[in-house]
Amino acid sequence: MRTLTTYDWHTGRLSKPLQIAVLCDLHDEAYGDIWPLIKGADCLLIPGDVVDRYRQTYNRGIAFLNEAASRLPTFFSLGNHEMLIKGREALMEALSRCKAAVLINTYARFGEVWIGGWYRPWLLNMPDMIDQFEQEQGFKLLLCHKPEDYMRGLRDRNVDLVLAGHAHGGQIRIGNQGIYAPGQGLFPKYTKGVVDSRMIVSVGASNPVRMPRWGNPCEVVRVTLE
What we know:
Layout: E1 2-9, E2 18-22, H1 35-38, E3 43-47, H2 59-71, E4 74-77, H3 80-84, H4 88-97, E5 101-102, E6 106-110, E7 113-118, H5 130-133, E8 139-144, H6 147-154, E9 161-164, E10 173-174, E11 177-178, E12 180-181, E13 185-186, E14 193-195, E15 199-201, E16 218-225
Parallel strand pairs: 1-16, 2-3, 3-4, 4-5, 7-8, 8-9, 9-15
Antiparallel strand pairs: 2-16, 6-7, 10-11, 12-13, 14-15
């Protein structure tokens, strides 16, 4: 069961509100219940991990990107599961053919907003797009899969809003505290909600590991840019 989490984000820079749906960490799971949660959104942003590197599968993830793009403008950036899956070349070929806009350390204009997709460019032997991205005029929204990547290396960059996932909400949540997150270890700091005043971290749309989630339902996020 996926829940809907909403945020209102005042920009002072848009001529009209923009409804953004955000889905992270699908991990090649079924997605039929997602469509009612994103209905009416102006676009869908996906900060990584539509595939599942544990099962080595991505057919449903690619199908989701294609169906989503047939419903509304869809923008996808890489996560660690896309990077670590075996046969990554075949996955990248499938991504190159999909209907969604695939942002691999690049960015695109959508109305009054610039949307960038950033993932550890040194691992891809690619130039870092962030220098050029932050020079663009207008509201700059960055997809950055790992919240710790933002906290360690992107906090001083000129972007307006960052969307992240990866931490799975800390898997088990007691009150507002997650217990464990990949990349952050025990009692992680960046697992859900607004971090550093300009990053929204999603708990993710699925559970790819055997450990159950507790106090931490899977979610789809809606952000109203005002």
